[in-house]
Design goal:
The chain is an alpha/beta fold. The chain is built from 12 helices and 27 strands. The two termini are about 35 Å apart.
Length: about 550
């Protein structure tokens, strides 16, 4: 992040105006996820905006876990959030929790009651919804709306003391049941929940609602600009109302930006959890998920995600981005940074009949032709090799430039070989291809200048490593997934056994990324071991989607 350029946007225009007018003399932001799931690509945009904005103005950005709903939260999610932020390359100033402010937030609720701006309501959740009205019809007042301040204080204390069961009562702000903004129609600000909290234990059985805790936590923490996604725009009047009624001297300012929406993806935490629970994916970090942990496991570089977010830009209007742009950013990054290697996913044996039996040689090849700094490696060449089955045909169509009887091809970085025949089994399936090689063509160039159009990758039978390859594609076939069952892409994962890697990858470690020549970009999976190497396809060399 230290080297990352921060593009100017409309949020910075607002901040510049505030600084010029003296509304604030510094900038402080926060990234406030709820720890009820793993972060996804949409969160990456929010992280980028929150942290890069603070960086641009020489301010600080805190990580604040908005843990106001303990029934859905878990420390597993807290740990994953921290890991994802660090992976993206950002550093928080402090790790804070909304629960750290529970005492203060509670005092704020009592203050509203004493001002006659909050009351205890006995309506059920269904009744509250019914009383709230619609976008075209005003709501109606709760029959408990005009309880006295003394009665409300007593009832709120009894709620806090655990006297009532879950759902029996709530504390509501007293605003305007006829407001055209439904969020202002006496919203619930505290509810009863006899749930153990992962930070505060059993200290509380009443918990603040997000809309109440958020502005108070922001301002208490010293946040100057509370940056959030566009769905909170209609909540801003409520955000401002709480801070005004609570008489904060330096209230935070909320500014909204458009969420990052991508086609062929699901980013709703609820839907992601459903996919996990229903076994449609292997977990939150399944490489087909739009979660940051899934993308990391698949081999997406963090820098590629930041490049994607920067290309999309920070806008106010809702839009949907093409997943192909994200894949293009991944390709661009890996093309520049990933070392090359050879892997054969569907092996077919090739026997070089005129190459000395038992002899091997080491061919020095570049790890990345565009990156001399990545050095070279040795590739083994021997009498018996493996190529892809699709790189040989007995009776090829026109313009097929790979291996067939009588044709000559180039083996990448090695020699020119010419097919002289092939072996078959009792079913007529080709089991081995026979060739001769030109000893004078080392490096892949003919000494007499003859042209050879086909170039094949290979691995040596004397020095290759078996592995399992998982070919990942988009999880959904629908551009806007609606039905999590019907819209699943049946070809989102294909598992290939019996694949072979060149010998230089025998010590490949989880997270190592390579371009496998002519195949795509691949990454060693987190479950890969020395005994069983597992490789994930990160992205194909070229998009197969229109």
């Amino acid at each position: 992040m230290e080297e990352y350029n921060v593009s100017s946007n409309f949020i910075h225009d607002f901040i510049d105006e505030d600084l010029e007018k003296g509304v604030y003399d510094h900038v402080q932001t926060r990234f406030p996820p709820e720890p009820n799931g793993y972060l996804h690509i949409g969160h990456a945009k929010a992280i980028y905006i929150d942290f890069s904005t603070a960086k641009k103005y020489g301010g600080v950005c805190n990580l604040r876990l908005d843990d106001t709903n303990p029934s859905r939260e878990d420390l597993e999610y807290v740990d994953s959030i921290k890991e994802d932020i660090e992976w993206l390359g950002f550093k928080w100033n402090k790790v804070l929790y909304a629960s750290s402010y529970f005492d203060f937030i509670y005092e704020c609720a009592v203050k509203l009651i004493k001002k006659g701006k909050a009351y205890v309501c006995d309506l059920t959740a269904e009744q509250i919804k019914e009383y709230r009205g619609t976008l075209t019809e005003p709501g109606k007042e709760s029959p408990y709306r005009n309880r006295s301040i003394e009665e409300n204080l007593e009832l709120f204390k009894r709620m806090t003391d655990g006297e009532f069961p879950d759902g029996a009562k709530v504390l509501r702000a007293k605003i305007d049941m006829a407001s055209p903004n439904i969020n202002m129609r006496d919203p619930v600000i505290y509810r009863i929940a006899h749930v153990t909290h992962h930070q505060t234990g059993d200290k509380w059985c009443v918990y603040p609602m997000y809309d109440f805790a958020h502005p108070i936590s922001d301002t208490k923490e010293g946040v100057t600009h509370s940056l959030c996604s566009l769905e909170f725009e209609n909540h801003r009047p409520l955000y401002d109302w709480f801070l005004k009624e609570l008489e904060f001297e330096h209230p935070s300012r909320q500014i909204e930006f458009a969420r990052l929406n991508i086609n062929y993806c699901v980013t709703s935490k609820r839907k992601c959890l459903q996919l996990v629970n229903d076994g449609k994916v292997s977990g939150w970090d399944d490489p087909r998920m739009a979660t940051l942990s899934g993308m990391r496991r698949r081999g997406y570089p963090a820098a590629a995600l930041l490049d994607f977010i920067d290309r999309v830009g920070v806008a106010k209007a809702y839009s949907v981005c093409d997943y192909g742009l994200l894949e293009a950013c991944v390709r661009d990054n890996l093309n520049s940074n990933a070392p090359r290697a050879m892997a054969v996913l569907s092996p077919l044996k090739v026997i070089i009949d005129n190459y000395p039996d038992g002899q091997t040689e080491q061919l020095e090849v570049e790890n990345n032709p565009d990156r001399p700094d990545l050095g070279t490696r040795n590739v083994t060449f021997s009498r018996e090799l493996f190529i892809e089955k699709e790189d040989f045909m007995v009776d090829p169509p026109k313009k097929y430039f790979r291996l067939f009887p009588g044709n000559e091809v180039r083996l990448k970085g090695a020699y020119l070989v010419k097919c002289t025949g092939y072996d078959t089994d009792e079913n007529g399936e080709v089991t081995a291809v026979h060739c001769t090689y030109d000893p004078e063509s080392k490096g892949g160039n003919a000494p007499d200048g003859r042209k050879v159009r086909g170039t094949l990758h290979f691995v040596s039978a004397a020095d290759c490593v078996p592995c399992e390859v998982r070919l990942y594609d988009r999880l959904f076939k629908a551009e806007t997934p609606d039905d999590l069952e019907a819209d699943l892409n049946p070809d989102s994962l294909k598992v290939l056994d019996g694949c072979l890697l060149e010998g230089s990858l025998k010590d490949i470690r989880p997270g190592d990324t390579y371009q496998f020549m002519r195949q795509g970009y691949f990454c060693a999976d987190k479950d890969s071991t020395a005994e069983k190497i597992i490789i994930n396809r990160t992205v194909q060399l070229n998009s197969s989607w229109k």
